[in-house]
Design brief:
Length: about 150
Amino acid sequence: MRLRLAQGIIFGVTFGLAIGVGAYTFVYARGYSYLSDNAEGCANCHVMQQQYDGWLKSSHRAVAVCNDCHTPPGLVGKYTTKARNGFWHSYYFTTGWFEDNIHITARGREVTEAACRKCHQEIVDAIEGSHSGGAESQTLCTRCHVSVGHMH
């Protein structure tokens, strides 16, 4: 009987904490905006303000939002990536364990590279032409265009 009571209390406290953290994240910290395509949602955390401000000055602002370059196409890929990134962004922001100079992850770089190639396929084909030997021999768009989209 005592064991069931203790388990019920532990469950209640855990459930209450989960609801409280969830409510804080989605209401006070505007986590709900992260579910949209609104670029302002990406700047909810002040650590992303520089990237947002750079995007506002870039030519891509007229044709692309954060999700166009930083999430894969399709509903499942987009929201899986947003959930994964959102968790880690929240974790690092909350703990303060992030570098001042934010770096894109290897997976994020792959997603961004695919987005560049999708939107600029004609240019990519003209540059690489028939000399392309597959993905491993491709020149990365961001190698030369590192500040595109964010105006570093």
